[in-house]
Amino acid sequence: MAKHALRLVAVAYVLFLLVLPVILIIWRTFGDGLAPFVEALTSPSALHAFKVTLTVAGWAVVANTVFGVVTAILLVRHQFPGKQLLGAFIDLPMAVSPVVVGLALILVYGRFAPFGGLLESWGIQVIFSTPGMVLATVFVALPLVVRAIVPVLEELGDEQEQAAHTLGASRLQTFVRITLPGIRWALGYGIVLCLARSLGEYGAVAVVSGRLVDQTQTLTLFVEERFQNFDQPAAFAAATALALIAVVTLLLTKLLRPKDRIDGN
Amino acid sequence: MTREVTAITVRPARRLAGGTAAGLGVAVIYLSLIVLIPLAAVVWRSADQGPGYFWRSVTTPDAWAALTLTIGASALVALINLVMGTAIAWVLVRDRFPGRRVLDTIIDLPFALPTIVAGLVLLALYGPQSPLGINLAYSRAGVVLALMFVTLPFVVRTVQPVLLELDTEMEQAAASLGAGPFQTFRRVILPNLVPAMLSGTALAFTRAISEFGSTVLISGNLPFKTQVAAVNIFSQIEGDNTTGAAAISTVLLVVALVALVSLDVLQRWGRRRG
Amino acid sequence: MAIEVRDVNKSFGTTPVLHDVSLDVAAGSLTALLGPSGGGKSTLLRVIAGLERPDTGTVRISGVDATRLSPQRRNVGFVFQHYAAFKHLTVFRNVAFGLEIRKRPKAEIRKRVMELLELVHLEKLADRYPSQLSGGQRQRMALARALAVEPQVLLLDEPFGALDAQVRKELRTWLRRLHDEVHVTTVFVTHDQEEAIEVADTIVVLAGGEVVQAGSPGEVYDNPANPFVMRFLGPVTEIGGSLVRPHDIEISPGPVEGGSPAVVSRVVRLGFEVRVEVKVGGHDAWVQVTREQADRLGLGPGDTIHLRPVPGARSLALAL
């Protein structure tokens, strides 16, 4: 009896907190058929928001993937003083509010900050422009790739890499032919997580973008702005699009989750 | 003798290998430019007009209300997660019913769903147009609801693996020694879960105090009533008061770090017992 | 000499692992590095391969100073205890790896790999993945992979350590035969003295990070340099203040010249051989005799007998 009660409570909690709200918004979006959805998402503002979102997320994912692979290899395969500290700093973004991330970047890269002013004199505008949004997105998604790869690299061990060295492979050849295939599922998992986080970032981007419609407006900013301007259909359509991306992400990560694939070929 | 002397003098000093140094350089510069220097700038800015100004910025009526609401609501949400997260993890590991795997997948939805969308979907079900007739918009309950949504996975995902690895023989042993189901749970299972439960709760708390996006739409951001700290910081940035924003940000950072350090201590404690 | 190691020292942190190690390995030989675990033998092998860099000292391979060369440029074949199979590549691609790195023509690679797979009896499993092989098969694949690049020396780190006893015995004989066919200078690490004696033509005993003795299996077994080597290479027992092999002891019912009196405490029959446990001079010792000898002597617990080493037996006096 107690078992069934517990099951009921758990399922009801998840149902009312997560499932019903998401289903409701999808239902509201498609309540009048597919046409309003398509129309709302193909308006010039929406298309521009898509473009900005993809640009920012694309750069952030590339940067964090390169950094993630380098750092994970560093943390697992190399010895150096301050290793634990580096590991702790990697996780720091998890504890920082997105708004604080935005503020932090403004204080360093803003027009009136020393460093931002210098960049501005070189003709590079960071805040209220794409570079700042990329920085903000990189910040919030920074630990994801590293943390996805580290356990798999540890599990993999370095014997295969040593074997490749003794067979004449250079560092680069060993990385491309041995290490990378060994971590490919974990890397895919990390990249998907990073991409989802980047596409969905709101707070940090809201601060550094200046929220300029048709200029620095991402999809998440579009949702908020349309909703505040009483354009519910557009807000719901964009939210549904983002929710669908989230669901796809969820299924992808389920597929790629490293612990299931460690010995797979 | 001479050989020993040369052996010592010729031995090369401990030096980083070329690849390590290059990789470390790249990683440290990247991390510094994007994370460390900006965060240091926040702390620096919060202090640059003296401790008196810092204190006044944090204790302005609206900032203080936002901070107390944030910490209070986060503590409440952490507590709800402690109970509900453990219950859900238990159901996912020990119960068998159709749809269990779907439930297991859905738990991660708040990690994947953009926060602004989370706020919007909650407002759709629990706002003025609620089909259930429950309107939590612009209320503190709405804030708590939003925080519950975004923090749901933390406790579930920390307790679940521990529960999976928990040896059922231990419970059978307890039963064979005459313990009833409740006693077995309290004396055998719970002590093994507590470290994971607490660390999940600490993570949920840290996430809750820094939350912004999901509360924006449902809370209405009413100062003194539903405005959380992150929204207060946001409005101060908009009003060009970066020093005040930095002061509140610093408080949030410190509270988060305290929570995470205690989490680390808890994990060490758990590992020692494990 | 195929490998010349001179005065190599190596520490990990503050722990010294190799101390002034010098070693010559003759071209075409099959050498065993034998010793207890923690004796430094695996580290020495990894120093030869370039996987560890010595703090001081030099390593020459085929006359060339290789001390500062990366493993990539040494052209050594290295076989790891746990195989280090490339999990994401088939058996064929594993063996072909070194040749692909060297950019050999496809046809040549194919021919060479198939030859090697035949040599190690894996030709039928070329398209399998390592996870589909048994431990012994993986080890043979690792050997073929190391041999594919025609290394100047072949180095094996506890090659059979992770296998069960039966497969271990088979692979030992097989390695010996393979070496007779391929003739590549081979060094392998083992802590199993039986394995070293059976397979190697030279044994180097390493203990406490130093070379204790080097020589043919016969020399090392019959003329151990010190009690440690004698104990490590085979069974020993102690009578009259000397270490003796238990099968090198003569039992007489009555007093004999140079004999020590002993009292039988137990007689254990182990198939063909019989183990006679005795008390001699206040401590325990044992003698190995054949069943026929035991029957002739008619030994039983409590009997008093006299023991002495057989003529020509090697014994080492223990310092008192």
Automatic annotation (TrEMBL), chain A:
Record domain ABC transmembrane type-1: where: 50-257
Entry GO terms, CC: plasma membrane
One Pfam family it belongs to: BPD_transp_1
Transmembrane listed as a keyword: yes
Annotated organism of origin: Microbispora hainanensis
Transmembrane parts of this sequence: 7-30, 50-76, 88-110, 122-146, 187-213, 233-252
Protein name: Sulfate ABC transporter permease
CDD domains in alphabetical order: TM_PBP2 (cd06261)
Record NCBIfam families: 3a0106s02
Membrane topology, from the record: Multi-pass membrane protein
TrEMBL record, chain C:
Amino-acid biosynthesis among keywords: no
Enzyme class per UniProt: translocase
Keywords in alphabetical order: ATP-binding, Cell membrane, Membrane, Nucleotide-binding, Sulfate transport, Translocase, Transport
Enzyme nomenclature, EC number: 7.6.2.9
GO molecular function: ABC-type quaternary ammonium compound transporting activity; ABC-type sulfate transporter activity; ATP binding; ATP hydrolysis activity
Domain ABC transporter: from-to ranges: 3-233
GO cellular component term of the entry, any: ATP-binding cassette (ABC) transporter complex
A Pfam cross-reference name: ABC_tran
Keyword Lipid biosynthesis among UniProt keywords: no
InterPro entries assigned: AAA+_ATPase, ABC_SmlMolc_Importer, ABC_transporter-like_ATP-bd, ABC_transporter-like_CS, Mo/tungstate-bd_C_term_dom, P-loop_NTPase, Sulph_transpt1, TOBE-like
Domain of life the protein comes from: Bacteria
NCBIfam families: 3a0106s01
Name assigned to this protein: ABC-type quaternary amine transporter
Record organism: Microbispora hainanensis
Taxonomic lineage from the root: Bacteria, Bacillati, Actinomycetota, Actinomycetes, Streptosporangiales
